[in-house]
Task: inverse folding
C-alpha cells in the first residue's frame, strides 16, 4: 500500500482516511471472510468515527461508544494493540462483547495511531468469524497504522499551518480596517490617534459589537469599499546580480 500516493491524491484528511479504511478492508478480507474497518477519534472525552470502509463499520463503532468500552476504545486510550480473537471467550469488555456478537462480529483488532497532542485515535478492524486475524494480518495492521500515523502527523501539521495562516490573515485584515478608521476619525475630529481609537471603542460598546465591525462600516461608508490587505505568506528571495 503506497500511503503517500493515497495522501497526495486525497483532497483532505477525511478523504485520505476513508481511502485508507477501504484499502485496509479490501486487503484484509479473504474468500468467505469480510472485514470492516473504521477510524475512531477520541477528543475531549468524546468518541466519534471519522472514517469507515462502509456503513456497517460505523454501526459497530457506535456500539463501543454506547458502552464506552471495547477494542478500539482500549487501543486509543491505552495506546496499545488490542486483539480479540474470539468474542465468545473474551470477557474484557463485559456486555459489549454480547452486543457485538449480536451484530455478527466475532473477532477484532484495534491499533492506535501515534498522534501529537491530546487527541487519541485507533483503527478498528472487525470480522464476522472468530480467529480471523493471524500473525501476518496483525503485523500488516500494525505496519500500516504506523505508516499512516506518520502521514497523519504531516497532515495535521499542514492543517495547523493553514489554520494559523487564516488566523493571521484575519488579524491583519482587522488591523487594516481599524488603522484606516482611526485615520478617518482623526481627520474628522482633529484628535489624536488614541482619542480616535477611544471613540471607535465607545461606539462599538454602545452598539454591542466589535471595534473591527465599527471600523469596517466607517471605512465602507467613507470610501465606498472595505479595506483590503495584501497578504502573502510566501517569502520572496532576492539575489544581487553581479
Result:
Amino acid at each position: 500500500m503506497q500511503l503517500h500516493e493515497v495522501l497526495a491524491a486525497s483532497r483532505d484528511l477525511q478523504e485520505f482516511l476513508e481511502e485508507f479504511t477501504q484499502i485496509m478492508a479490501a486487503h484484509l478480507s479473504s474468500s468467505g471472510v469480510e472485514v470492516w474497518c473504521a477510524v475512531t477519534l477520541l477528543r475531549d472525552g468524546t468518541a466519534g468515527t471519522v472514517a469507515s470502509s462502509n456503513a456497517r463499520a460505523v454501526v459497530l463503532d457506535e456500539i463501543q461508544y454506547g458502552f464506552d468500552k471495547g477494542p478500539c476504545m482500549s487501543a486509543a486510550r491505552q495506546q496499545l494493540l488490542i486483539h480479540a480473537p474470539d468474542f465468545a471467550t473474551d470477557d474484557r469488555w463485559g456486555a459489549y462483547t454480547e452486543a457485538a456478537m449480536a451484530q455478527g462480529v466475532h473477532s477484532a483488532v484495534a491499533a492506535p495511531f501515534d498522534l501529537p497532542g491530546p487527541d487519541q485515535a485507533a483503527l478498528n478492524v472487525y470480522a464476522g468469524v472468530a480467529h480471523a486475524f493471524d500473525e501476518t494480518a496483525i503485523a500488516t495492521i500494525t505496519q500500516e497504522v504506523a505508516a499512516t500515523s506518520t502521514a497523519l502527523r504531516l497532515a495535521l501539521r499542514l492543517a495547523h499551518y493553514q489554520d494559523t495562516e487564516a488566523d493571521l490573515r484575519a488579524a491583519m485584515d482587522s488591523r487594516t480596517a481599524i488603522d484606516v478608521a482611526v485615520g478617518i476619525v482623526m481627520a474628522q475630529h482633529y484628535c489624536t490617534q488614541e482619542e480616535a481609537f477611544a471613540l471607535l471603542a465607545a461606539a462599538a460598546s454602545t452598539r454591542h459589537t466589535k471595534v473591527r465591525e465599527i471600523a469596517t462600516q466607517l471605512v465602507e461608508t467613507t470610501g465606498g469599499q472595505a479595506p483590503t490587505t495584501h497578504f502573502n505568506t510566501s517569502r520572496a528571495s532576492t539575489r544581487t546580480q553581479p
In short: The beta strands are 35-43, 46-52, 82-84, 107-112, 120-127. The longest strand covers residues 35-43. The radius of gyration is 27 Å.
